[in-house]
């Protein structure tokens, strides 16, 4: 992957020195995974940082035989960066939802990269703070109606990872249970609300294409904004 395309795909590197990006790509390894394959096992956190070039990944919390989806990540996002600073054991994994292409950079080399480029270091801190704020927003939503929580999730996925098409903003057609987990609602509410949004023509689900189209992002954002 060319450094210019990499910087454009990953907002983390928008302000990075081009030489830094070139060096990072020179030490990165590329991986491809089919759907439902573990891309990061619970004992591998802290070994590397992973950059999602294409596809969709879910991060799960494991508890015995149960697994709860904590986050859905799409093209242009990255994960594993916090674990390189935290040596405590992990009880989570990352699973490919669709066909996935990743670039990985070892923890040692990624830390070297941060030390080499002050702008990149600053940008990393900004994005980590933004993730903490997103967690805070989810906490604020805990007592809100399920419809608002689900709308917030769909809008976030569309804005962060969506592909603008003639049919609307395309995201992956996620399993209702995964949507329920990340929205903090029940699977039953997730299934029911998705049906209502389809009937309102706010979304369209194309199972053959494995796609969910956000047809009326403005109305979804309006619904998601009813937090007062």
Automatic annotation (TrEMBL):
Coiled coil spans: none
Superkingdom as given in the UniProt entry: Bacteria
Entries under SMART domains matching the protein: cNMP
Span of domain Cyclic nucleotide-binding: 12-131
InterPro entries: cNMP-bd_dom (IPR000595), cNMP-bd_dom_sf (IPR018490), Env_Response_Regulators (IPR050397), RmlC-like_jellyroll (IPR014710), WH-like_DNA-bd_sf (IPR036388), WH_DNA-bd_sf (IPR036390)
Pfam families, sorted: cNMP_binding (PF00027)
Name of the protein this chain belongs to: Crp/Fnr family transcriptional regulator
UniProt source species: Phormidium yuhuli AB48
Upper taxonomic lineage: Bacteria, Bacillati, Cyanobacteriota, Cyanophyceae, Oscillatoriophycideae
